[in-house]
Amino acid sequence: xxxxxxxxxxxxxxxxxxxxxxxxxxxxxxxxxxxxxxxxxxxxxxxxxxxxxxxxxxxxxxxxxxxxxxxxxxxxxxxxxxxxxxxxxxxxxxxxxxxxxxxxxxxxxxxxxxxxxxxxxxxxxxxxxxxxxxxxxxxxxxxxxxxxxxxxxxxxxxxxxxxxxxxxxxxxxxxxxxxxxxxxxxxxxxxxxxxxxxxxxxxxxxxxxxxxxxxxxxxxxxxxxxxxxxxxxxxxxxxxxxxxxxxxxxxxxxxxxxxxxxxxxxxxxxxxxxxxxxxxxxxxxxxxxxxxxxxxxxxxxxxxxxxxxxxxxxxxxxxxxxxxxxxxxxxxxxxxxxxxxxxxxxxxxxxxxxxxxxxxxxxxxxxxxxxxxxxxxxxxxxxxxxxxxxxxxxxxxxxxxxxxxxxxxxxxxxxxxxxxxxxxxxxxxxxxxxxxxxxxxxxxxxxxxxxxxxxxxxxxxxxxxxxxxxxxxxxxxxxxxxxxxxxxxxxxxxxxxxxxxxxxxxxxxxxxxxxxxxxxxxxxxxxxxxxxxxxxxxxxxxxxxxxxxxxxxxxxxxxxxxxxxxxxxxxxxxxxxxxxxxxxxxxxxxxxxxxxxxxxxxxxxxxxxxxxxxxxxxxxxxxxxxxxxxxxxxxxxxxxxxxxxxxxxxxxxxxxxxxxxxxxxxxxxxxxxxxxxxxxxxxxxxxxxxxxxxxxxxxxxxxxxxxxxxxxxxxxxxxxxxxxxxxx
Length: 728
Ligand code: GLC
Prior knowledge:
By secondary structure, the chain is α/β, with parallel strands linked by helices. Helices cover 31% and strands 18% of the residues. Residues 37-38, 57, 87, 131, 183, 262-263, 481 line the site of alpha-D-glucopyranose.
């Protein structure tokens, strides 16, 4: 449909029809079920309003969507097709690693391919929009939703944002693409205390410099929707925040897409305390620029009347509705409300072999080897695989809803597929302790007898094996939304199992499943090798076997810092020096830090080992001075000094040691992955240009300032391999 036709349609619509387009229904209203991602039973719409709604969330199934599309369009005076939206966060039916793990690949290419596969499956199932990428910068591992983010760095998150939007959207009219939705705008990843939905207090400079870049990258890549966040940003809820939604998102970033609220976030402005009632919440939201009210009764209950009373100009409604109609038009829905989806074909797309292969490769590349004292890769040894994750299918993320979880490959299956002799398996313990509950309630409580029996069997196997692979971790339902924790450990039962196994066999490799950086100091001390596998998804078991037996070499680098202890959190690499800097591994009186712990994390951002060693030459600069408009080439020679091939992520960090405001001790400004054979060397160069040096100065101008700059290039954010130049 042409833009003129869209304008004509808009002119022809009644106010009720327009408001209907701004209402999003939860699945339960149309189907009585569907995927539940928030409080249920809260919708108070009339049948007519349900009939007018412009979109729905939480429904899967091509046949079901086709039927509902027909049913709902028939109720609409202008038969406007609905948008079907869903959280496709790390894969649809083929589940990929959680986004925090995807960040550890430092591979935008892998991220793009993962999202492209997810889009193909979701579109084949009839969906039009995914509520992804989540781009909230995260620094506090207590917050359950860190698993959904690419990580703690603005540059890495921006690169992943661009790649993910490309992967989902491509050409929106092609039937294997869906519209992407950046979220949660903005700053949701910094709630006080790591408590989900809590207040976020950030200076304007910090918001602009650290938290907004990834969202902006998604906007520049053409992301079609943006979702408002639940939190208050400096005491203003995002869904009523004109500065955020109009000044920043639309004017500064140039976003022209659809703004959708998070789940019931519009009417939550009442409990937040900035709306006296839902009517006022509706007014605040439409004035701030929220186009679609997700599952709250605000727009349905009050928007038409607010317009008729003259309190809200109909122009605001028209602008919102035109953006929604434009999105539907760009998806081709007016030409074909079913987007040529043939339910009979859907099954052929879901879990396609090439998608599974991609998921396997991506999972292996997302694993981070944090420790290895010569015990990996596993050779031809007697290996006991012990722990509650040995044969556990729940190794996909908290935002994964596979219809066929039985397709998930467990570690045991992955190991057995290798066909190697001498493998034994024992569950050893439960994932959760007795009496502990996840956000969905109690896991069936273990019986002591059963736990004892599993422990005894495990210890027997451990004592009679050369190596032990402990398969441990946090339960996926302790992560994700509403998954904030005041501890960062795994269950007591698992720790007891690890300690007892260590007494009978010191040759331990620990494989750790988690949705966040955990406090793993004791686990690391008790293990000769520690491999973080996050929540690896459908092909997790195969990928773990590939890496542990050396068929794939670990290459992941941490996208989020691992603390020494909970007490250090939030802890992140791009911190400030302070006026009394403490050497990272030392404690000195009257200097920045704690009395009882050093400042250095256990494993820093950007860190990750391989099965080989990479040697770096000194940093070479082709000039020591640069004027704006010029560039400096910084290079190193990286050598594979080991005897197996490997992939290294070479990272470029800059530091501005003296500026009109303090600057982080390091800022990631580039990375390149290089694959090197044993003995092979490669020169890796980065171009340093003046825009990379810009920041919000003391006057809040986004500028660079002349002076000395430090350059660091290495395999982790704590590299000291550096050089200096001067910007004149
Ligand atoms: C949830 C989440 C958001 C998700 C939405 C729809 O509450 O905050 O990330 O996209 O509701 O499911």
